[in-house]
Amino acid sequence: MEAQSSTPPAASAPVTVVKEHRTVPGEAMRSGRIWRRTARWLGLLVFLVGAFLLGYVFREAWYGYVRFATPNFFENSFSAQLGKFAKGDYAAQIGFVVYTFGGEILKVFYLLLLGYLGSAIAAKGIQFFAASEAVIDEAVVADVDEEIN
Q1: Residue 116 pLDDT
Q2: Taking every pair of C-alpha atoms in the chain, what is the biggest distance, in angstroms?
């Protein structure tokens, strides 16, 4: 066994103190900032696309409501169009009525589907915008840890 000396270590050897704090190099921080900014703008853009779709749906629904709220809307449109058919051609007249009501029902389903998709897209844009900072920070710190080790 060696005897322990009471002399301090040489002055040329630096003493390092290990802390629980991780230092991220400047390049990684700048890269994280760039990706965070890009992710936020993309999230905002996706949100705006969803909001635009919702605005379109509400506008079309309002126009449909105004059209149906007009007094005698169907009577006027049917009388103008049904006058073009022959007097005894009931099959063509019924076909026109089914075609008209079927078109209006399809418009309602189209607006319902587009409204659902617009709200889902807007929600994903908000989620992307909100989650961009945490996800990017974790990715940058994980890359730095791999480089250090």
Answers
A1: 96
A2: 123
